[in-house]
Amino acid sequence: MGSYSNTGGQGQDTTLTGRVHSICPGEESGSIAFLLRKNGQFFKCKLDKTGGADPAIFATAQRLTPESLVRVSSCVMSCTDVDIKVSGLTILSEATANLSGNLKLHGAPGETLPSPNERILLLDQRLDNRLLDARVAATAAIFKLFSAVHQLAVKYLAAHDFHYIPTPAFVGYEFPAEEEDHFYLDYLGRQAMLAPTGEVHLGMALAADLERVYDIHTVFRREPKSDGRHLTEFTMLELVFALKNDWTEILELADSLLVFLLRSLQEHDKYAKLTTAAQRLYPAAGSFKLGLDKNGKLPRVRFDEAKAILRNQLGKMALVEEDLTREEEALLGELFASNHSPLDSPTDVFIVTHFPKHLRPCNVSSLGRDDATTNSFDIILRGQEIVTGCQLLHSYKEVRSAFTNRAHPIDPDSPGWRPYTEAHEIGMPPWGGFGLGLNRLVQGYLGLMDIRETVLFPRDACRLAP
C-alpha cells in the first residue's frame, strides 16, 4: 500500500485529489471506509460518524461510487499514519455506479493481478473500456514513455540540425502491385490514398536544398489482420538528409539516435520510474539489454552473416535468397540477447546490414554499379524490425530506369509520380535516411506482447472504437 505523508507538518490539514478505487462500508452504520487511488498509490480513508465526523461530510461519503474523482482533506496526526481520517470531502466528478470493465489491474491491496497470459486474453475487453484501462498506472506509463520517446527524438534531431517538415496524409501516388497495402478514398471527385510513408515528400524537400529534414507523423497501412505486430495507423519517425561522403552516415546516425533514446529511457530517473510502474503488469519492462560493441556502437552483422548464423548455430534453413522472416528475426533476437551470443555482449538491439538488391525497393542504391548488395540496413529490437534505412538513388536517369525496369513498373511521368521524378530532374543531392516505428520501439523496450498496447486509441483490422 502506498504511504500518505503529511508534508505540512503535524496537525496541519493536507489535501489529496484522486479516484475512489473501492468502498468498504464499516461494520457499523456509523462508519465508512474507502480506498483512494492516485498515480498507482492507494490511501485508505475513514470516516466515523460516532467519532465526530461532520454529518454533511458523512452524507457525501455515502454517495461515493468507484472511479469518482474526489478531493479529501485530512488532519494527519503522524507522518506514519496509513489510514487517513477524513476531515473534508468534495466530489469533483461523480462516476456512474456499476461501471463496466473493472478488470482488477491496478494491483490494489487485497486484489490479485491476473497472470500475464490472462492479461493477454483480457486485452480486447481492456481496449473496449480504454479510458478506464488507461487509469491503471502501468498502462498510463506506456503512453507517457511513448511521449518521452517523441520528445527525446525531437531534442536529438534539433541538436543535429534537422528541420521538421510535415508531410501530407493525402497522396496521389501508389506503388504498383502494392495496392492492397493502400487505403483509397474519394478526394473531392478524385482518387487519393492515405500516405503509407513520408519518405517521398521528405526526399523532395532535399531538392529544395533543405538538406536535413524529418517528420514524426501518422502513416497508414492496410494490414488485413491483427497479429500483435501490425497496426493500420501508427507513428513513424522518418528522416532524410544530403550525404557528405557515403551511405555509412545514415547507419551512424540511426545507431547514434537509437543509443541516445534507449540510454535516456534507462538512465533518466523520471523515465526509469515510468518503466518501474509499467513493470507491475509487464514483467519484461526494465530488463532491456543495450549491449554495445568495443567501439560503443550497436552490434552489426551483414545479411549473409545473419543467415549463416541461423543455419550454422540454430539449425535453420535460412535461405540467403529470401528476406529475414518474422521467425528468423525473433530467433536472432533470442540468440544475441543470451549468454551464448556470438557478439561482444548480450544485447536486445542490433543492426543487420547489406541486404540483397532483390529484397529492397528498386530505388535503393547498391555498393557498385553491378553489385547485388545494397547500401541498406534494418535495426532489430527484441526480435522485431523497428528501423529500415538506406541510401537512395539521386540520379534522374537512374531513378527513371529503376522505375521502368521494376517488376511492376512505375510510370515516372504519371501525375502521381511526376513531382518526385522532377525533384531528381532539377538536381537531387546524394541522399538517404531511415524510418523508425515508434510504436514498435516502445513495444520492444517494455517487452509488450501486443503493439496495440502502445496506443491509447489503437486502430487495427477490427477496431474503429473508441
UniProtKB/TrEMBL annotation:
Swiss-Prot/TrEMBL keywords: Aminoacyl-tRNA synthetase, ATP-binding, Cytoplasm, Ligase, Nucleotide-binding, Protein biosynthesis
Enzyme type, top EC level: ligase
Catalytic activity annotation: tRNA(Asp) + L-aspartate + ATP = L-aspartyl-tRNA(Asp) + AMP + diphosphate
Record's keyword annotation contains Aminoacyl-tRNA synthetase: yes
Family annotation (PROSITE patterns): AA_TRNA_LIGASE_II
Cytoplasm listed as a keyword: yes
Listed GO biological process terms: aspartyl-tRNA aminoacylation
InterPro entries: Aa-tRNA-synt_II, aa-tRNA-synth_II, aa-tRNA-synth_II/BPL/LPL, Asp-tRNA_synthase_2, Asp/Asn-tRNA-synth_IIb, NA-bd_OB-fold
Entries under Pfam families matching the protein: tRNA-synt_2
Entry's Gene Ontology cellular component terms: aminoacyl-tRNA synthetase multienzyme complex; cytosol
GO molecular function list: aspartate-tRNA ligase activity; ATP binding; RNA binding
Subcellular location field: Cytoplasm
Protein family according to the UniProt entry: Belongs to the class-II aminoacyl-tRNA synthetase family. Type 2 subfamily.
Listed name of the protein: aspartate--tRNA ligase
Native source species: Trichoderma asperellum (strain ATCC 204424 / CBS 433.97 / NBRC 101777)
